[in-house]
Write a structure and sequence with these properties.
The structure is a single chain. The chain is of the alpha/beta class. The protein has 2 domains: 95 residues, Bordetella uptake gene, domain 1 (D-Maltodextrin-Binding Protein, domain 2, 3-Layer(aba) Sandwich), CATH 3.40.190; 115 residues, D-Maltodextrin-Binding Protein, domain 2 (3-Layer(aba) Sandwich), CATH 3.40.190. Helices cover 44% and strands 21% of the residues. It contains 9 helices and 7 strands. Strands 1, 2, 3, 4, 5, 6 and 7 form a 7-stranded mixed sheet that branches. The two termini are 16 Å apart.
Length: 227
């Protein structure tokens, strides 16, 4: 969220690049493009065609303005030229309740919330939003298989205060990476649709810059404002 917040909020009290020393990524998980079964689309191509034939008639739920779920949808709209009506909710259960009932038709949901509903057939998964398919839903394609270049994910990482000695940053990075390669932790992450992000502090710093720039463009292009 901090990569989004850097642009989303006009008066943020901290600067992600200035005030923090990147240590390590931790996890990455796809969002899932999921629809109510009433939507006559079984894949991304059919969904885009249906949305273009019915502009403004599909409601896209999110768990709030400026959230990763919202921004994943806005990126999809921008890259496909579709007109989906954003409907923000105050909480994930509220959004899910209306998606299941058909009050809204589509959501770019976090994997952990929608997975059970998808497996039990109450929702239809059209695609995952990461660049690679998810082990939790291996039969579900990526959005990028139909919309080249599309990628969105929910991720977490660790930063230390700016000015933390490099030796401490390196030590923390080493311990985090070691934990993330533990088979038990990897299996647990896989069970909820997540994967580990390992690498050096420099690699995580590059990732943070890229994510901040990417989502800043989406926020500005869609004119999204904090309420």
């Amino acid at each position: 969220m901090n990569a989004i917040n850097a642009t989303f909020f006009d008066n943020l009290k901290f600067d992600l690049k200035r005030d923090f020393a990147p240590v390590s990524g931790v996890t990455r998980a796809p969002n899932v493009l999921e629809v109510n079964p009433s939507v006559p689309a079984n894949n991304v191509a059919e969904f885009v065609a249906y949305a273009k034939a019915n502009p403004g008639k599909l409601n896209m739920a999110s768990t709030g303005n400026g959230t990763s779920i919202h921004l994943a949808g806005e990126l999809f709209k921008a890259t496909t030229g579709t007109n989906l009506v954003h409907v923000p909710y105050r909480s994930p259960p509220q959004a899910m309740t209306d998606l299941l009932s058909g009050q809204v038709q589509v959501m770019f949901d976090v994997m952990t919330q929608g997975l059970q509903h998808i497996k039990e057939g109450r929702l239809r998964a059209l695609a995952v939003t990461t660049a690679a398919r998810s082990d939790a839903l291996p039969e579900v394609p990526t959005v990028a298989e139909t919309v080249p270049g599309y990628e969105a994910s929910s991720w977490s990482g660790v930063c230390a205060p700016s000015g933390t000695p490099a030796g401490i940053v390196e030590m923390l990075n080493k311990e985090i990476n070691a934990a993330l390669t533990d088979p038990t932790i990897k299996a647990r992450l896989a069970s909820i649709g997540s994967t580990a992000i390992t690498g050096s502090p420099a690699e995580f710093a590059t990732f943070l810059t890229e994510e901040t720039d990417k989502w800043g463009k989406v926020v500005r292009a869609a004119n999204i404002k904090a309420e």
